[in-house]
Amino acid sequence: MTTSTDVVKVTDETFASEVLESEFPVLVDFTADWCPPCRMLAPVLADVAEEQRGRLKVVTLDVDANPVTQAAYGVLSMPTLIVFQAGEPVKSLVGARPKRRLLQELEEWCAD
Length: 112
Description:
It holds the Pfam family Thioredoxin. The chain has helices at residues 15-20, 36-51, 67-72, 99-105, 107-110; strands spanning 7-10, 26-31, 57-62, 80-85, 88-94. With 112 residues, the chain is α/β, with parallel strands linked by helices. The longest helix has 16 residues, at 36-51.
C-alpha cells in the first residue's frame, strides 16, 4: 500500500516481498506510534521518498505491530533506519536527523 508520500507501510507478512526482493535499495524506518523522534522523522522520510523515487525505496514498519521483523534485525531503539540492498542490510542509522544529514549518510544509494 503506497501513500501519497511514496512511503510504503510494510508488515511482518509483506517485509520479504517489499524489502528483501526489491530491485531498488530500500530504506526501512523501524518506528512506533509512541516515539516522538519517529514522528519528527516522518516528514523527512516522505521528502526523501519523493525525491529519490526510482533510486531508493522508503518503507516504514511499526515495531509494535510487527515484532518478528524487529527481532530478526535486532532493532532496539526507535527510530532505526536500515538500508537493504539485494536483500541484505548494508547500513544502519539510529535516531532522527535532519534531511540534509540523512541524504549525506545515504549518498551511496541516492546518487544521481
